[in-house]
Amino acid sequence: MSTRPPAPFRTIAPDDAGRLIAAGDARVLDVRSPEEFTTLGHIPGAILLPVELAPCAVATLPRDGRPLLVVCEHGVRSAHAAALLARALPGAEVLNLAGGMSSWRGPRDHAPGNPFGETGPSSWLVANADLLPRGGSVIDVACGAGRHALLLAAAGFRVRAVDRDPEKITCLRDAAARLGVPVEAAVVDLEAAAPGTAIVDPVAAGVDLGTAAFDLILVVHYLHRPLFPALARALKPGGLLVYETYTIDQAARGRPTNPDFLLQPGELPRLAAPLEILRRREGEFDGRMVAGIVARRA
């Protein structure tokens, strides 16, 4: 009698997968590269998230009760991603497409895919991966559900993640434990006063991220201007601040609309002074109006 534990996911034939998809009874996650997704074609409606970014999905995939069908080109990368997701998404039904897209005979779409949308990490973080320290210490500021914290921890970084929402921090701790990656997640109120209240020094007001504590500080879609001195102080010499958030032009597209949470044109590099700006961008990216910098402490 076999004592092997049951597989955490199920591999299904292309015909069975086709029936599920046609009935709207499955969500498709394609873990190939963006080039494969476009040039080789993908199942219509599939979410693109390359396999190396799969830990993000634990924090971001919609939970609508539908099975998650994971696909790649030959069924190898998708099996790896399916095993990871099945471990980290308790109660979810995770399926792997047998033979991958090479065995798929159903319809294909060749439209470009965006692996850096709501399901994946910030495209600004991915675009600057070549600058990141190897295995350094990281703090993910205003981490939310923790998509970046999980990704960086899975990549071998020592990660601390902070957010003011206790529920999100609890979910992040649980997800990290199921993935088997170490994340130190803590509830921290990063705002010493309500928006619009002048604070000269947030450290003096109780907001302290440490001194020369981190090789990398990541902030995505969060803005509290008085926090910038604490961010600069928390960087080790040579450490990097990777920051991106919304500009004032985003207000015309929807949330957020409060000017306290929106950057003025060219404002972000000024806020980061005296850090050295290595890279910057501003405009429309991933369907949002944002500004981003990579800045280094001398």
Could you walk me through the main structural features you see in this protein, from its secondary elements to its overall organization?
- The chain is built from nine helices and twelve strands.
- The chain has 298 residues and is an alpha/beta fold.
- The chain has two domains: 10-103, Rhodanese-like domain (Oxidized Rhodanese, domain 1, 3-Layer(aba) Sandwich), CATH 3.40.250; 123-296, Vaccinia Virus protein VP39 (Rossmann fold, 3-Layer(aba) Sandwich).
- Helix 4 packs across helix 7.
Number of continuous helical runs: 9
Count of β-strands: 12
Helix content: 10-25%
- What is the correct CATH architecture of the largest domain? 3-Layer(aba) Sandwich
* Major β-sheet profile: 7 strands, mixed
Q: Look at the structure and give the CATH class of the largest domain.
A: Alpha Beta
Identify low-pLDDT runs. 1-6, 193-200
Order of helices and strands: EHEHEHEHEHEHEHEEHEHEE
Count of folded domains: 2
Secondary-structure class: alpha/beta
Short description:
By secondary structure, the chain is an alpha/beta fold. The protein has 9 helices and 12 strands.
